[in-house]
Design goal:
17 strands, 7-stranded antiparallel sheet
Amino acid sequence: MENFRGYHDQGVRWFVSSLALLLVGCEYRYARESLSSAQQEEDGSGEGVSSTGGEGGTTGTMTGDGPGTATGTTTDEATGADGTTYGMTTAGTTTDGMTTAGTTTDATTTDGTTTDGTTTGEELCGNGVVDVGEECDGDGWGDQCVDCELQWFYVFASSVAYQGNLGGVAGADEKCQKLAEAAKLKGTYLAWIADGTKKSSPALRFGFKPEDTREFKLVSGDTIASNWAALLANSPVIPIDVTEKKEPLDVTTGFRNAWSGISSNGVAIEGAKTCSFWTASKHNGRVGRIWRETTYGGTDCTDGAEWSDCYDFQCSFLARLYCFQVAPAGG
């Protein structure tokens, strides 16, 4: 045990002695570097010093070029909490403490776009892609798209009639979108349909706000409502009787109904028949009439709400869909 203590005490003394020598060496090296740096600053003969700062710090390189002369580039950069990068870069030549040539750029970078009074890089609006915050962009929109914002919204009656098994509300939406794309209509289209639940109501699902002042038009160009609030309050001023192909429907032929389940104010009808949430071709589903019955001598569904809420229809029968263009989510 005594031998172990002896070895232990000897090891501790060796470690302390080594540490002391190391500290002396570091102080000697620091003194030499400080003396050398002071001499370089005095005669301007330095070969270059580089320093790098962390977030919000400074990154710079200065190279000695003779007595009293230095050239280099300095960048001061910081990143905000929202991911925005702010920076100032100064490049130039300094002689005897006076800058004789240089360029300074103050720039803020957000989402890949740099602004310093003059925009550099690619602007989002006009790049041909409907980006977040945009409703439209690129070719094919015509006059409907101005400054990446839709000026009105299109509506059509589907050229295809379907049984009540639509694949649910999502399946009906998909059918409208595919018809629109086949007809080369731009944008997002959803079906005017609900499955008896409040969340499926177009008044909520479509995303329009009461203060929106934009018109709703048939794809032929005729206006059916001056704005969203007017559509819900007063119903369409003319029937939605033009297909995505810009073909008018014939009132004398069949398929005069459109699957709905919605009151004319855009809210799902509580307890309405919906062909088992639009997933079955049996039982009944609520429909709207594309034309008033009085158009061809009938007497039912003439209260102004018939376009969306008329009567129950057998799910095995065929009916159309009303398809509405909407602003994209996040637009």
